[in-house]
Amino acid sequence: MSEVTDRDDAYQKSLRFLCDRINYERMASGTARYPFRLHRTYELLTRLGLSNYLHENAQSHNLPRHDVPHRKVPIVHIAGTKGKGSTATMVAAILTAAGVRTGLYTSPHLNHLTERFRIDSTPCSPEQFTQLVDRIAPVADQLASEDHGSPSFFELTTAVAMLHFDTQQCDAIVLEVGLGGRLDSTNVCQPSVTAITSIGLDHQHVLGDTIAQIAGEKAGIIKPKTPVVSGVRAGDAADVIKRHADDNGAPLFQLGRDFDFDCVPQSDWGSRITYLSKHPSLIHSIIADLPLEGDHQAQNAAIAISIASLLRDQFSSGGGTALNEPMIQSALANLQCPGRIERFLVANDVTVIIDAAHNDDSIAALCDSIRDRFANSPKANSPKASQTDRLAKSPESGGPSHVADSPDSGRADCRKPISIVFGTSRDKSAASMLSQLAPLADTLILTRFEGNPRFTPTSELLPLVPEFVSDRVHVVENPVKACQRGLESVSPGGTMVVCGSFFIAAETRPWVAEQSVDPVT
What we know:
Elements: H1 2-19, H2 38-47, E1 75-79, H3 84-97, E2 102-105, E3 117-119, E4 122-123, H4 126-144, H5 153-167, E5 172-176, E6 193-196, H6 204-207, H7 211-218, E7 228-230, H8 235-247, E8 252-254, E9 259-265, E10 271-277, E11 285-290, H9 295-311, H10 325-333, E12 342-346, E13 350-354, H11 360-372, H12 378-381, H13 389-393, E14 418-422, H14 430-437, E15 443-446, H15 458-461, E16 473-475, H16 479-490, E17 495-499, H17 502-515, E18 516-518
Parallel strand pairs: 1-5, 1-6, 2-5, 6-7, 7-8, 13-17, 14-15, 14-17, 15-16
Antiparallel strand pairs: 2-3, 3-4, 9-10, 10-11, 12-13, 12-18
Helix pairs in contact: 1-4, 2-4, 2-5, 3-9, 3-10, 4-5, 7-8, 11-14
C-alpha cells in the first residue's frame, strides 16, 4: 500500500512541476502575452539529447547554432484552426495499423495529462511520466536560471512527448500544434510532412485579426523542400499557404486540386468516404468507413490519407509498401476520438452528443451534423452532392469515376426535442456560436466549466443569446447539473448536445458516460 502511495505522490509531484509553470491554456485573454520563444524549446530539447529531431534550418528563427544530425524518425507536423487533433489521431492510427511504432502528441486532454503522450494509442503511464519529468526538471531549472527564462507548461509537455517517444524508440512521430504554428513549441522539430487542416478565426488576440494573418502563423510550420498537405480549398488562406510553400520550395498537395473526397452518412453513425486523387504521389482511390460523424471528419480523413500516402516510401521494405489500402481502411474503421461529436445513448431513449467544438467553424460543423441526423430531415435522407466529381471525371485522373454507394439511411439519431448545454472560454466568439446553435435548441442551458479560469461567466453569456430563443434559456452554473437539467428537458426520446469548449467536454463526459445504457461510441 505504501508503494502505491509513494508512486501516486511522485506522480502528483511531477504534475505540479508542470502545472506550476506559465500555462497559456489557463490564461484568459487580456492578460499579458507570454513571450513565445522557440530558442528556449530548442535549447531544452538539445540539452536532453534530442537534437536529432530538430530541424536543420534553426538559424532562420535566430536560434543558437548546434550541429544537428539527420532526424532519427519521420515526423508529421499538423496545424489548423479545427481538425488538427482528429487528423493527427487518424495519421497515427494508420501508421500503427501498418506496424509502425508511432508516437502521438496532442492537446489538450480530456481526463488525464498523460493522454497527450500516446504510443500506438496507449497513453504514457504515470510511472513513465514521473521518470520523464525527473529527467527534464533539472534541465528546465538550469534554463530558468540563465537568460533563456523558465520554460512554459506547453514547452515542457513538448519535451515530455519527444523524450517519451525517443526513450520508447518510436519509428514515427505525429505532432499536433498547440497554438498557431510559427512560434509553437512543436515547430523546432524537423518534419517529413507538414499539414494545415483548416483556417478560421480563433485565438485572434495571439494570431491576428484576419484570415490571412492567421494563415501566415499556421503556415509558419512549412519547412524547406518538405511536402505540405493543405485542407484549405481557396481564398486568402489558400493564397498565403501557397506563397509560403513556394518560398520554401515545399511541394503543396491541396484539397480540391490534388485530392478530394465524398462522403455519405452511415445509417447508424459516421460516414462512408470516397477518397480520390489524380496526383502520382498520392493514393489514387480508396473507400473507407469512418465511425466519426460529420463532413468535416471525412475531410480530416482525406487529409490523413494524403499524409499517409506521402510517407509510404519511408516505410517500404524489400520493395513492398507497408502502408496499403486495407491498413488504412482498418485504421479508420476502428478510430476513436473522444469528445468529437461523440454519441451516448442514456435512459429514456435520449441521445447525448458531446463535442469539444469551440469556435465558429467547429460549431458550424457540429450544427451541420445535427441537421444531417434529424429524423425526417430532407438533408438527412437525400444524397449529398459529390465533391469528387471534378477529380473523378477529370481526364487526367485516369481512374474510377464512381463514389461509395450510400448505406441504408433508415435510422436518424438526432430527434427532437433538443437541449443544448453551452459554455465557453473568454477568448472565444460566444455570440457567433450561440447564433448558430440557437435555431436548433428547444432548450438552451448556459453553464461554465470549473477547472480552468478562462471560462466565460454565464452572466456575460446571457445577453449574447438571440432574442428569439430567450424564453427557452436557463442558467445552471455547474456543468454536470446543467446536463441533468438538459436531460430532463428532452426525456423521453430527445437529444442533448454539450458543446462550446474542450473543458466543458472534459468535465461533463465522465458523468454522461456513467449514464450510458448502450456503448454506441
